[in-house]
Design goal:
Elements: E1 2-13, E2 16-22, E3 33-34, E4 36-39, H1 46-58, E5 66-70, E6 74-77, E7 84-94, E8 106-112, H2 126-131
Parallel strand pairs: 1-7
Antiparallel strand pairs: 1-2, 1-4, 2-3, 2-8, 5-7, 6-7
Length: 134
């Protein structure tokens, strides 16, 4: 089975979490809601990649975020590809009243509570990834 290592970061402001709607310009999971995600390149440190993705996708700098925790790597079967899994490295960060500047990878964003997540069409297992951090 082929696998791809990715980071998925959740950004928290009080009791709300930032979720991004993946644009039609990305290769996978178009139109689905997710955390800030990106592929880990080569033998890159996952936490470093998480901070890079947060800056690239939403314009929040490392100085503006506070790392809260990570959880164990988890594997999720990819519904789009046969014999493929995503190896996800989950992270949780905190920020206070950030200004969000989306890049081309996402078309919208929302700040929602954990309970509101069920109202959104999300990437597979995003709830499990988030709950692993709470």
């Amino acid at each position: 089975m082929r696998s791809t290592r990715i980071v998925t970061s959740f950004i928290k402001d009080n009791d709300k979490f930032l979720f991004l709607k993946r644009s039609n310009k990305v290769k996978t999971m178009k139109g689905l809601w997710a955390g800030v995600s990106g592929i880990i390149e080569n033998n890159e440190e996952p936490l470093k990649r998480a901070k890079i993705e947060i800056f690239e996708e939403v314009g929040i700098t490392e100085e503006q975020i506070k790392f809260l925790k990570s959880s164990e790597e988890m594997s999720v079967h990819s519904p789009q590809y046969v014999n493929h899994e995503w190896r996800i490295f989950p992270f949780l960060f905190e920020v206070k009243k950030p200004k969000i500047k989306l890049n081309w990878e996402n078309s919208e964003y929302v700040w929602i509570t954990v309970d509101e997540l069920k109202n959104y069409e999300t990437v597979p297992s995003i709830d499990k990834v988030l709950f692993s951090l709470l």
